[in-house]
Amino acid sequence: MSSPRILVVDDEPDLRELLEITLLKMGLDVDGAATVREARALLGQKAYALVLTDMRLPDGLGLELVREVATNHKSTPIAVITAYGSAENAVVALKAGAFDYVSKPVVLDDLRAMVRSALKLSDPGAQPAAAPGGTSRMIGASPAMQALRAQIARLARSQAPIAINGESGSGKELAAREIHAQSARAGKPFVAVNCGAIPEALMEAEFFGYRKGAFTGANDERDGFFQAANGGTLMLDEVADLPLAMQVKLLRAIQERRVRKIGATAEEPVDVRIISATHKDLAKCVENGSFRQDLFYRLNVIELTLPPLRERLDDLPLLVDAILARLAGPGGARLGPGVLDALRSYAFPGNVRELENVLERALAFADDGVIEVGDLLLKGAKSGDAAVVPQGAAAPVAQVVTTAPVLPAPFAAPDEERGAAPDAATPPPAQPLSADALPSNLPDYLSQVERDIILRALNQTQFNRTQAASLLGISVRQLRYQMQKLDIHAPEP
Ligand SMILES: Nc1ncnc2c1ncn2[C@@H]1O[C@H](COP(=O)(O)OP(=O)(O)OP(=O)(O)O)[C@@H](O)[C@H]1O
């Protein structure tokens, strides 16, 4: 069998030769071209496992080749070589369909790593098996889901950063996991980080790691999220919650593909694909100054939007079947008359996660595994309304636990989705102040008021966070964050 063939397009003979020798030493066949015209001619004659092109060529731009290869040679990944410091070029090329980029001066180890992942992509035998008809875990046959699956399959073939938008519980993390699972990085870690749950003072250590003795308490050397995700995918969930100071450091790490542990003198290379997610409008966050434009530009190379459940209600039967089969085993639960219609007329502000919660609770109320409309506790909750749960109903509050993260809680994926209850050490409720009285400590007083209100909402919803967040007009993330901040603990399951 012949070796994979690579096309190197660069008009600088020295650099082209260096690249060619490096690739030949990797056991690959190499063709060289010095102009766009030569490259076009070769592309017309032979099939390539990878094209590597400089951005500026004597008769045109590497970008033209990127567009042509992305359109006419879909199974050939193309990567670009960008001038040092021209991050913008890299982003433009990725947006145009480039698989990845290397910066000048070319670090040969980076080049080899990039070539290896490109070759995995163009070798069908090495592809991770995708489920027939698309991805396996993302359920739904609606046109919106079919389009999403096709987009995920396409995105899995590139290394470009992806920004996923979507309401809380709509499947952003699931989509990120699917992209990872279908990509050449599938055998490497997927690390999900909830940026909103990391105390600011610990952020740098959590992201980049630290050396022993770097600060008081640093008793051992520790890797950060970047090192943990090396070779794989790092999902930055709720990325809008990153403080500005951390945004600068993150931007640098992403641009340079290098990080420095706290206390270390040298930087270390990291190879991670970044997927970010948020339910906020990041462009608005840029406008109001809470998110850096340059980081936004860097993360938002490709956008993926997840439709809310209420816009793909045709998927309800499939989703309900799958969730019930998971909760009760195949055939272990059935829907009574009118249940699907009742679900269809509900707005699902918490999307698929809320559907999971509703069904889990309903199943606990159901007789002989038959869920009736009354078991859903959606009373009065027509489209657009918040869910109404009768007070005092003794519902179990276990919620579905999502896939385990690679890193331990609380800083990795927020998977501890169970109900919350006031713990034994709960301080007494804040005493109302008379009209002219002042609290002796305003922040403490406000925290106490906030704590009381959150606990009230959790009590009213049998500690269902999705519903409590909806009652309070905040996202589940915000609620979770406030609970953590205010020390409202999850009870034992
Ligand atoms: N299309 C789908 N098919 C099957 N399960 C789904 C689908 N979409 C979401 N889910 C399930 O819904 C739950 C929430 O999904 P996920 O955590 O990916 O949402 P999210 O948008 O990341 O939520 P958040 O905004 O709170 O972080 C998970 O249990 C996930 O498995």
UniProtKB/TrEMBL annotation:
<dbReference type="Pfam" id="PF02954">
    <property type="entry name" value="HTH_8"/>
</dbReference>
<keyword id="KW-0597">Phosphoprotein</keyword>
<dbReference type="Pfam" id="PF00072">
    <property type="entry name" value="Response_reg"/>
</dbReference>
<dbReference type="InterPro" id="IPR058031">
    <property type="entry name" value="AAA_lid_NorR"/>
</dbReference>
<dbReference type="InterPro" id="IPR025943">
    <property type="entry name" value="Sigma_54_int_dom_ATP-bd_2"/>
</dbReference>
<dbReference type="InterPro" id="IPR002197">
    <property type="entry name" value="HTH_Fis"/>
</dbReference>
<keyword id="KW-0804">Transcription</keyword>
<keyword id="KW-0547">Nucleotide-binding</keyword>
<dbReference type="InterPro" id="IPR001789">
    <property type="entry name" value="Sig_transdc_resp-reg_receiver"/>
</dbReference>
<keyword id="KW-0238">DNA-binding</keyword>
<dbReference type="InterPro" id="IPR009057">
    <property type="entry name" value="Homeodomain-like_sf"/>
</dbReference>
<keyword id="KW-0067">ATP-binding</keyword>
<feature type="domain" description="Sigma-54 factor interaction">
    <location>
        <begin position="138"/>
        <end position="364"/>
    </location>
</feature>
<dbReference type="Pfam" id="PF25601">
    <property type="entry name" value="AAA_lid_14"/>
</dbReference>
<protein>
    <submittedName>
        <fullName>Sigma-54 dependent transcriptional regulator</fullName>
    </submittedName>
</protein>
<dbReference type="InterPro" id="IPR002078">
    <property type="entry name" value="Sigma_54_int"/>
</dbReference>
<feature type="region of interest" description="Disordered">
    <location>
        <begin position="411"/>
        <end position="441"/>
    </location>
</feature>
<feature type="domain" description="Response regulatory">
    <location>
        <begin position="5"/>
        <end position="119"/>
    </location>
</feature>
<dbReference type="InterPro" id="IPR025944">
    <property type="entry name" value="Sigma_54_int_dom_CS"/>
</dbReference>
<dbReference type="InterPro" id="IPR003593">
    <property type="entry name" value="AAA+_ATPase"/>
</dbReference>
<dbReference type="InterPro" id="IPR027417">
    <property type="entry name" value="P-loop_NTPase"/>
</dbReference>
<keyword id="KW-0805">Transcription regulation</keyword>
<dbReference type="InterPro" id="IPR011006">
    <property type="entry name" value="CheY-like_superfamily"/>
</dbReference>
<feature type="modified residue" description="4-aspartylphosphate">
    <location>
        <position position="54"/>
    </location>
</feature>
<dbReference type="Pfam" id="PF00158">
    <property type="entry name" value="Sigma54_activat"/>
</dbReference>
